[in-house]
Amino acid sequence: MGKNIIKIITFLLIAFFVLSACCHKPPPPISQAELGDLRAKVEQFEAQVSAQNAEIEALELELQQKKVELQNLQDYEQQLKDDGFLGEE
Q1: Radius of gyration of the chain from Cα atoms?
Q2: What is the pLDDT tens value at each position of the chain, 89 positions in all?
């Protein structure tokens, strides 16, 4: 009895996959106008990404400069403390 159930389930699974493969329709072809629209959108998104990447690079450069400025100020503060011009907090 158990073997028959396994055979039936196996047959049904195989039949399902065969039928789904046979009945699958390919997507409709894309017209040249739709293709042109999609290309234009891709180019627009690429331009946006490029602009955002440039902005990110500029912000990263500014951040790096601010880190250097902060380190310089901390070094100067430490030098003042070492020289006795600035008390410990």
Answers
A1: 34
A2: 667 888 888 888 888 888 877 777 777 888 999 999 999 999 999 999 999 999 999 999 999 999 999 999 999 999 999 998 887 65
The residue with tokens 């039949």 is 15
Q: Domain for residue 74, yes or no?
A: yes
36, two tokens: 């042109």
- What tokens were used for 45? 């998104």
The pTM of the whole model exceeds 0.90: no
Q: By residue range, what is the domain housing residue 49?
A: 38-89
Cα 70 from Cα 79, distance rounded (Å): 14
End-to-end CA distance of the chain: 85
